[in-house]
Design a protein that fits this description.
The structure is a single chain. The chain has 419 residues and is α/β, with parallel strands linked by helices. Helices cover 32% and strands 22% of the residues. It has helices at 39-49, 64-72, 89-96, 106-123, 175-193, 219-227, 260-273, 294-307, 319-325, 335-341, 351-363, 409-415, and strands spanning 12-15, 29-32, 54-60, 80-84, 130-138, 149-157, 160-168, 211-216, 233-236, 248-252, 277-283, 311-314, 330-334, 367-371, 373-375, 378-380, 395-397. The strands form 4 sheets. Strands 9-12-11-10-13-14-17 form a 7-stranded mixed sheet. Helix 2 links the parallel strand 3 (54-60) and strand 4 (80-84). Helix 9 packs parallel to helix 11. The chain is elongated, with a radius of gyration of 25 Å. Residues 251-414 form the Cytidyltransferase-like domain.
Length: 419
Amino acid sequence: MSPLSIPDWNDIVWRASCYPQTDGLDIPIVVIRRPKMDASARAMVEAINATPTKAVLYFAGGASQALGWMMSVPGASSTVLEAVVPYSRMSMIQLLGKVPAQFASRQTSEDMALMAYNRALKLSQPGFPALGVGFSGSLASSRPKLGDHRFHVSTRTSNHLRSSTVTLSKGLRTREQEDKVSSQFVLKAIAHACMVPTTFVSELTDSEVPKELEMQFNEDQELEQLINGQICFKVYPFLNDMSRAERKIILSGSFNPLHDGHLKLLEVAASILGEGYPCFELSAVNADKPPLTVSQIKQRVEQFEKVGTTVIISNQPYFYKKAELFPGSAFVIGADTAARLINPKYYSGDYQRMLETLLGCKSTGCVFLVGGRNINGDFKVLDDFDMPSELKDMFIPIPPEKFRLDISSTEIRKSQGML
């Protein structure tokens, strides 16, 4: 097949690189048809791409043209972090982690939007609004449907959930036309979630009135959702820097209280790495204590607002889970924490389990910057520990001449009469 046989230059042509170019052999060509879009739809996509919103899109059962429109306008990478089409039943079950009561339903689209929102949080940089979009549809197919032709669209942001259900007039449109109408609706829903004004007119008839559901969440409700595990973390971007750095430099702790040592340690770690977004991380869920209350979280967050630095509230107390939550990040830890990480005692005495757990962290692209700490009266640095050879390149020392602090939060609380 030759590129000259392509009927429409609006098509996107990809030459399969996995096939070596050999004289006398045809080179396979994959032709992907780009769905046609009118000027108003294009203008809407351009306006969406001009916002700081970062989105993950999960579509099943239709609206394929919306994906094409989003991806065909220059600047798509500034908005779309990931687009997934879980089309088969098993794909949907694996995405949701359960068998949905109905595959095409409002509840399923809301579950998809929540999963997409959590995924967008993990993939986007702190400070950028995250958006999850879920679409589930039951449109015209090769066999007549006994039930309605309908689709469900849900969008989830940090403080807002919006769901819409549209029942289409059966027999009025072809499958391609139903896909176009549902795609138009999805595009408008994304624009609305990005707070983009639009005069875009859909092709729904007067009888095809969407059933709408909207929910707003205040800060307390967001934090309750975090504690309960519905959302994976919440960002307070007090740094006020819309950084494009993909790597997060994270100092985790309880921060009770936040002190100058924490601030200086993160500053030094950031200077060593040279590139990244420095932020603190507080887990609302503890390994051996009750979860923090909403009021406790808000009190500790106030400390970061006062000094103007970003803090992320998560629900994962263990570093191997934090690595999954913040892939590619650099975690700033003390030598005492490093000692615990490589001690089989904390893995039920199983050395191999310790190694596999930390290699799992390594596979996410995470590293650990280790600062010196007083341990039982002795100042210890990374070189004082026998690090497994498989893990050595994952641990980076912070030289004591660049940072050393011999006081802990516990000692500060004692001195202030907080214990």
